[in-house]
Design a protein that fits this description.
single chain, alpha/beta, five-stranded mixed β-sheet
Length: about 230
């Protein structure tokens, strides 16, 4: 089976509980939609767990990009502002070989994945995309080539409040579902776009803890079954 999750943010215990909840095995595939690091206390543990698993594939998130800027270009101000100090403190426990391996891995992260079942084409991205009406009818490759990479990892309302891509369901993270509402006013762990019917948000804001109903979510792309593990802290 094929699953996707997003925005682990160093919540290693919840990550492992979620893998258990879906009964994840070596025969399954997991797509992680970015932001495995920062804010939580086990960012490196999460990242190394993902790196060591051949059936786990991760996208670039804005926090991975901030981490690259901090490690490779010594641009730490924005990284620290967004919770990267904890990650850097963790990194000090590892030798240079591990640090270099992590940096190389981050530099190679893609910005989107696609997945297709018999009934649905999925576009998986960290934050969203910016749709250009002038590209209507173009192939996905042309539309993605148009994208500003910063949009793919930072965009919010300019994506969420507009139609996505005809023929695709876009699954994204980045924007915690606590800030998204269904038509009845509810804010479920996994949010479905009821206006355009073409987006699913899965960032449950796990790192923000029990006071904010923080949760880590998984969705099975083969049958759309959802799994949620709440942060009890």
């Amino acid at each position: 089976m094929t699953y996707c999750i997003s925005d682990i943010h160093g919540c290693y215990n919840e990550f492992e509980k979620l893998l258990s909840a879906v009964s994840f095995t070596d025969d399954d595939t997991l797509y992680i939609l970015g932001d495995a690091v920062d804010r939580g206390y086990d960012s490196l543990k999460c990242l190394l767990r993902i790196m060591d698993a051949p059936n786990m594939h991760m996208l670039m998130g804005n926090h991975e990009k901030l981490m690259i800027n901090g490690l490779k270009y010594d641009d730490k101000l924005d990284w620290f502002y967004n919770g990267g100090k904890k990650t850097l403190d963790e990194l000090s426990n590892y030798n240079d070989d591990v640090k270099n391996k992590i940096t190389e891995y981050l530099l190679e992260l893609p910005y989107h994945f696609t997945y297709e079942t018999e009934t649905t084409k999925f576009l998986l991205v960290h934050a969203g995309i910016r749709v250009n009406p002038a590209l209507a009818g173009e192939q996905l490759e042309s539309i993605m080539a148009y994208q500003n990479l910063d949009d793919l990892i930072w965009i919010r309302e300019s994506f969420i409040n507009y139609p996505g891509l005809p023929g695709y369901t876009i699954i994204f993270g980045h924007t915690p579902t606590q800030y998204l509402r269904m038509a009845d006013g509810s804010s479920p762990p996994v949010w479905h776009d009821e206006t355009f019917g073409d987006k699913i948000a899965i960032d449950g804001g796990c790192v923000y803890g029990i006071a904010n109903r923080g949760a880590l979510n998984a969705i099975c792309l083969d049958n759309m079954k959802k799994f949620t593990v709440y942060n009890k802290n």
